[in-house]
User: What shape does this take?
Amino acid sequence: MDALNDPKRWMLEVLDRGGRVQQRLRVDQALLTLGRAPDNTIVLDDAFVDAHHAELRFDGAAVEVRDLGSLNGVWLGGREAKPSATLTSGQEIRLGHSHVRLRALSADVPPARRDTTARGPLAWLKKPVVLLAGLTLAALALVFDAWMAETRALNVGILVNELAYPLLFLLLWAGLWAGANRLTSHRANFSVHLAIGSLALAGVFLADPLAAILAFAFDWHTSFSGVLLLLEIAVMSLALFAHLQFVADGRRSLQALGAFAVSALLFGSPVLGDWLRRDEFMAQPMLMPLLLPPDFRQVDGRSVEAFVRDADKLRESVETSR
Amino acid sequence: MDRVDSGFAAGGVCCRRPSAPFAGPGLLFNLVLLVLCCLAPSPARAADSAELVFANWKDRVVQVRLMDRAAGGKSGIGSGFFAGRDDWVVSNYHVIAGLVNEPGRFEARYVADDGSEGTLELLAVDVVHDLALLRTDGIRREPLVLADGLPPNGVRLWSMGYPFDIGLTIVEGTFNGPWQNTLYEKLHFTGSVNQGMSGGPALDASGQLVGVNVMGGFNQVSFLVPARHVGTLLQNAGDSPPGKAVIDAMVAAQLLENQSRLVARTLEGDTASTRLGDYSAPGALADFINCWGGSEEDLDSRLDFVYYGCQTRDEIFLADSLNTGSIRYQHEYISSESLEPLRFWRQLEDRGYYPRLELSGDEATVTNFRCQSGFVEGRTLPLKVTYCVRAYRKLDGLFDAYLTATSLVEDTRALQTRLALSGFSWESLERFTTAYLDGFQWTP
Assistant: This one.
């Protein structure tokens, strides 16, 4: 037996459903068996695995896996080992719902990754002052929203009505992220997720007045919903990305893309739906007044004649739709 | 106001679909003919009672039925009378509008006082004055004679027709002159013109046609189309049915001509204005525009309102779902002593979301609205204006418009206005809208 095929230079890794190593075994014999029965070298507690499912043979020039006539087979990637196949280092085999990986002891491991949650650009979210600021900002945004919608002075009843559900929602949201966080690491980071959630809540509630101020001040009337949509997607993407950074250690670019995609879907799909239905008949016009105190206005208007002349475009549009 | 049409048969069986172009009920009988005709005892002893008028001219009045071909039943009923030629029948446009709007679906039939029946074909319409001219397929009667000018107020008239499909009826009432300040001229008749009598004649004692029943349903207050418009309709009619395309073009041309007259009358002379707070705004722009005002303090919203609203008194009926030819506008001067500016303007914004002046029309008759919005520099004040327009699908060159504007001058005092125009040409929309926006001023 030459050095290359010495079983002692191999290791077998039994993976969990998340793909992480659950169990590591150094190979010390030329023949290993895998199955649900206790007399196997590697016992797989998996209802979809046969009592004696497969064997691994470290023999001659190759490592070979052989199916012992199992019900569900032995799979390498999308290919079935029928009755046997050759394995190389790093290759994964699937038996039932179990995954086992062959690894050479000499195989390289990837370099250590920087812990972005502890020391990276998002570590500031762990500071108590951020949580305090986030909660304060969220409460102020909610109170401002309530105040704008009312014409009376605010009272305790109005505040309870306005604040109770959003704050409960916020706790639930942070709790779910913390639960997910705990599943993937030894910490829940509840206060971090609460801080992210409250900043996001404040951002979403402030996006509307901010978009309205911009659209009104510069007479971008038709852009209001577009500006609002962009602000909402930006706020939600950042929040989801931050949550994901603490919860999962996937690739940063993938997380950013996922956060953006979910946010765009969340806020964009109603807008898209309205846009797709824009030709549905409505007996009365849709008026979107968008009014703020005169001092917010930053640009001059058109002359009456120019405004009326510009309506020629409307004429073309409605005549085309006859 | 209710037009005098009816959608149901006397037996109570409803046979009119809501979407049916309606047909009017009326009966047409009446007519009068006048003059000297052999039926009347003699001109000198012209009929001086309902009994004589009825006896002499009942055969000139027919019931007009709009029939739904698919159902084979009455979709609407009205009245009509012989005029111009011995096979011509005049009725209201709104009685037979189904023939214009959905000619494949409807046909018109008449039933004469002797029970004879037949088909009516459409020769011409006058949508502005709600008249239609039809030709019978067989029955011939001597036409009624049109009265020359209007009788003195207080003269007795007799209106005939088929109210509620219950048979030829004569109604006595008095003539009260033209309805003051209306754009689409009508005569005021104090008699009960009821549903089904639309299109029937109103005759004087000598049997001459003074007007055509068109609107009623109030307490003895009814309206007639003046006979001279019948004269114009008869003069312009051809011998044979012109077909749908010609009728549609006729309708569009009549509406365009009418609305240019309307806009010219509105914009001629000095523009009337009304004062609300420190603002002045367009007032009663013409004698046919009727304005109302009021004020209110709303403790709940902490806003004070002064209202001023104007509208033309009448509209032109085109179809069940579409009236046109109207001008309506409302101003509100809104102020608050206690509300902060941000909240004050939020209230104004919320109040502006829904149109308060509704325009009629459905998917079959008009397109969707298209809107533009922005700051406009008025003569002495900036305004935030939203302007929406839509086109009529079948009538080329006609549009509806809806405009809202809010003054951008003072923190907690503002003028908000709404304007709804229906059945305008594009040029008239431009002229009217420009003049309207120029009509706002801030004069503290």
Observations:
- Chain A has a mean pLDDT of 90.
